[in-house]
Amino acid sequence: MSVNAGLAHVSTDFMIAALLIYSLALLAFAGDYAFGRPRRRAAMLAATPAADRAAQLATVGAAPASATPAGVVVDRPDSGASESTEAQGPGSNATAPAAAAGPGNPIGGAAARPVRPAGAFRAIAEAGPWVRAAATLSAVGILAHVIAVTTRGFAVHRAPWGDMYEFITALTCVAAIFFYYILVKYRAWAIGVFVMGAIVIALGLAETLIYTPAGPLVPALQSYWLSIHVTAMTLSSGIFFVAAVLGIMYIVAERYRKRVAAGKAEPNPLLDRIPSGAQLDKLTYRAVVFGFPIWTFGVMAGAIWADQAWGRYWGWDPVETWAFITWVIYAAYLHARATGGWRGIRSHYIQLLGFASLLTNIFVIQIFVTGLHSYAGVQ
Length: 379
Known about the structure:
Number of strands: 2
Shape: globular
Strand order of the largest sheet: 1-2
Radius of gyration: 23 Å
């Protein structure tokens, strides 16, 4: 079936538009990171009475009655903004401000009522113009990205991930959607400048270095299993992409904070604004837990496809082997955390090694190593 050239051009136009909109969103996230968060913090302190601040200091180190789970970014209604727990710096243990004094609710008394967090989109609206602009631009960029991927599929009359360019653009689309889910659910706009920056770089490289015109598939990929196997691998790869960015953030932040605590480095206001290690660790773990079953299904679906295409479930083809190596590394990461009690930098090195294995499979094995797997227009 011939390629629809008109839809292919529409796809390219929307992809470029998505890249430009993501770039604007990145600037907005950077503006919030540099200017918005310090102002929200200052506003929160200014709005909290001195007696309430004293009550907060008195509770530092004490376990609150209803602790916020590590890694969950909470809304602070008193400031009209959203800040992360432990965001004040290394070793801090922020608690919700004490309720204002009043009849039946004395400061430090037991009658204080828990404050219901604002809704996710309301929290975004109240977090300031930088966050509102970043969230809006991200949503518009994702819409353009989805349209670009979809029209590419209609143009070639198949699933739009049959070559390297299509795979990377679909992967970054999944990464952007998953990041937006984290942004809304956990009010995690503090990580936006890092995740969106990585998405912009990856999509920019796809548009400039590995762009492939719309065309037919190589014979080995002409199967309905393309829509099953490669879809699963694309979804899980996009999720692992976000987890890798969070892992790098964790390692950089933890090394910096340890150096500051040891007196080997001066405090850096920008690095101090990175979310706490506990938050990044929990978000990374949740991302890998979410993506690992999808990757597992993708490997199994690939084995079934291999049996139909080549008459065997497993033949130690280089791409098959590296997909299995990647699965083993991510399984080791989850196993180490679940049974070995590994936390901190060591566990993040494991999951980053898994993502490095994934990238090796995509950009080295599939391009430079001879095997049964290949992408149209690349080899």
